[in-house]
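Quick one - inputs below.
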Amino acid sequence: MRKVKTLGLLGTGVIGGGWAARALHFGIDVIAADVKPEMEEWLRGAVANAEPALARLTFAPLPPKGKLSFTTDLREMAARADFIQENIPEQLPLKQKMLAEVSRHTGADVLIASSTSGLMPTDLQRDMVGPERFLVAHPFNPVYLLPLVELVGGKQTSASTIAAAAEYFRYIGMHPLHVRHEVPGHLTDRLQEALWREILHMVNDGVATTGELDESIVYGPGLRWAAMGTNMIYHLAGGESGMRHMLAQFGPCLKWPWTKLEAPELSETLIDRMVEGTQQQAAGRSIRELERLRDDYLVAIQQVLRQFDIGAGSTLRALEERLYQDAAVAPEAVDLDAARPLRLLDTVVRPEWVDYNAHMTDYRYMMLMGDAMDALYRLAGLDEAYRKAGGMYYDVETHVRFLREVKSGEPVYVTTQVLALDEKRLHVFHRLHRRHDDQLIATGEQMHLHVDTAAAKAAPVAPGVRARLERIRKAHSALPVPAESGARVGGARG
Amino acid sequence: MRKVKTLGLLGTGVIGGGWAARALHFGIDVIAADVKPEMEEWLRGAVANAEPALARLTFAPLPPKGKLSFTTDLREMAARADFIQENIPEQLPLKQKMLAEVSRHTGADVLIASSTSGLMPTDLQRDMVGPERFLVAHPFNPVYLLPLVELVGGKQTSASTIAAAAEYFRYIGMHPLHVRHEVPGHLTDRLQEALWREILHMVNDGVATTGELDESIVYGPGLRWAAMGTNMIYHLAGGESGMRHMLAQFGPCLKWPWTKLEAPELSETLIDRMVEGTQQQAAGRSIRELERLRDDYLVAIQQVLRQFDIGAGSTLRALEERLYQDAAVAPEAVDLDAARPLRLLDTVVRPEWVDYNAHMTDYRYMMLMGDAMDALYRLAGLDEAYRKAGGMYYDVETHVRFLREVKSGEPVYVTTQVLALDEKRLHVFHRLHRRHDDQLIATGEQMHLHVDTAAAKAAPVAPGVRARLERIRKAHSALPVPAESGARVGGARG
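Output:
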């Protein structure tokens, strides 16, 4: 097969647009053929729309972007393309005719793939010239972000076609899944379709709304499915003996009317296949090990969703709001022990904060100091209402010294000392400690400036907030000035 | 209903253990009753196992942890609990008997919930004293991390029971979903079970392995389901007219054998319900707006999975490895323009990097400087093989000055100037710029120390790496020393 420098699209639409965006992003030229000339503008819009998200998918260095061209002439596209992807409507006779036609205008070494959701490759390749270089390559919306592509060969497809296509799809960042048997709907759409038809039954029977049924997935199983499929998840639910125990325990439920889909007989052969399959997937990892992996990604994904205030992330936000309210202390009541700085943050190093050395990455130290600042602000009455009214401190300078390493799972805490304060500036000093032996891990000196966020310039802090901070500063004035404060990088105190 | 200070567990096991861990974490005492005394040790182990992940779920201040006690006497548990959660085996007569018994030993204001996956509350509450305070509350594994809990009332359940239970479950960080009609399997397990039975058919028919079927979800639809259900996802797939267009386009497929589950007739009533339901879910947001939200979380989740090297995250890692290889330049061939520092990082500010001010959070500036350092290391031949052999630079000091704000979506770049170098120390200066007008946004001065990671102490850098860095330092020695370098926080150069 040729090296793919130019991708030819037969038909555009949402799927074609997704293919175009992905290929162009990874440096491949695209020529799109569509009988409707107005689709050129549409396609350029779809590519532009995909680009902001695609641009954030990876930081790795990319080759120069590919060039997009458009033609209403199928033969021009066929003559210029090194790989052709068909995305026309799901009608077998139409696809057969167009695929046969395009196959007559290409070199014999040009692979031709169909994006069909459910038609069979053996039927599609029937009338083609060189049917051995044809396959189904079924992607998922949004094609420019989801890595899955199902590859299915027909009776006449050669093994080298599947291998070469897999290599091309990996090149544009995808995960090719070879579907070894032709079945309507391939693999993924069969599973999705079973769930979808059950949804339609539930709505049809008046049991639940579309919104309730979506909630039933996104707050629970959907979070798990982001990285482990049903089989691995059920293997984990079975305790130490995994899938075998799970089938023994829930096997009887297969006869219960939990869905309108009847299950197959749970024969010994089927049980063995399920058990052997999941054991292969576990690849020697224990249930405990896999549970830890599952728990780690479930926590990390909820953190992400919290930032977007969606699904389980919204639940987490609401919970945290309540926890902060419950823990709120009147600033006047804060116990200011002049013998030590404020201890405002206690936490545990998360696995996603460590780098390839298994130590916490440098910028995460600064993140923890920022979390301690947030706690100080809450204490000073600088809350969401204050921010909404347009006041806020901005970090203008931070100097961190890294003294010791810290590992995933280690409990740590941050203390904060107020060094100085005037009507606009707030000078603080943080110390990050390991909890179990109180070892000092890092120090951070920061200067914050109070701003009027609407005017985007420095402005005096509100008197109430200043009074509360001043009370802390006064108490802290009895503490020694940290030796590290006022030092420059690589040197002693300036 | 009473304020829940003590949760009573009737039966333990994986589900009971999950309930215990969650309640204790949020400050509620737990008394567990199980006829088998050996379950006490098991339960304490399960709680301890859940704690590391739970501890990372939120940074918000938590009340003191609850206390766990255990009894083999159901009556002791019933007398002390403010809320009872039953988790015994899924056998209707057994559950009916035990629920009736426990109901005779509690105050009338104690709610009693069953964790049943699929039994009906009307059947379960039949023999109870005070059946109006009974409900099904069905959680999902791992109970201590997944927020979903389905609440289902039976014919005798009061509305205030559902409301009070929802309040309690929210208190322990969950998302209660009120299932308004009793059906076997409630909502979630019906959808999961349809997918599960289709899997069993596929394995039974020899079409695919458990591993292939799991891949068919986790690299595609599973990523979407982490935050949007099938209905919302299909609404987005339908283009501007959403679900209505989607049903028109894919309605005919409902007759195709894409699953062994037959679909209901796609009547006008059903179409209207699907369209009205998804319109309510969209809540006035346009398709474009929802697409952007979907794309944002799909990118962010893939970043998380990349850190755990699982599913779509592994695909991304493999892609990046290839991109770095393709872009690798022999260090000798790097164009060292003595007139300017190295520009090693070009990127775009991601939406998950901004804070409540919609500006990039302070520690993300340091993260970008770290990414620029990684690029410098690659250029100097300090690659994965070098790290594996035990050599590495550690950041020992960073001083960042924040000069300007930067917003989500803004393209930025980092330049890096090598100030000084000896056998162990590497002194650099970064500048973060906005791309469109080259405005300077922040500066960062860093001292890095070369370490022998096995011995965990400073050690000389390898001669080859040092020579490559030295070549850069020499070229940069023609550049002016940055005015900000050598300055202390809040002051001029020291």
